[in-house]
Amino acid sequence: MPLIDQIQKDIVAAMKAREEQRLSTLRMVKSALQLKGVEKMAPLDDQEAQQVLSTLIKQRKDSIEQFTKGGRQEMADKEAAEIKLIETYLPKAAGEEEIVAGVRAAILEMTGPLTMKDMGTVMKAAMARFAAEGLRVDGKVVSETVKKELAGK
Prior knowledge:
Elements (H helix, E strand, L loop, with lengths): L2 H15 L2 H21 L5 H24 L3 H15 L8 H14 L9 H15 L5 H13 L2
């Protein structure tokens, strides 16, 4: 079942169960997916929909940081709950050990001595490796891991 159809089905279920918070979040997600589909002028495939969801999660994380700085913990908690719900529609997130292993494997595949100048190439290879495995990763975490690994060489 396509992701947008699953979300619509879950919206109906949330309405019937009178789950206001869940319903609100699902409607926001559906709206973001529809907007992206209108911009593209074609239906989104699941991978494009997952990219939209990843963007929404990233926005929520930024909001949590801002709300926490501003002393609005109840708003930060609301955003954290939205992240948990959105993540249920995405593939499993890679753990720190998996990210380190993936980056090291990408570095080993490359020939010659690697320096910090090769960071972009290593990042591209590592991100492609994670995508092929169907793992969701945060680019910031991968970038930091690549820096650590290249600095250690």
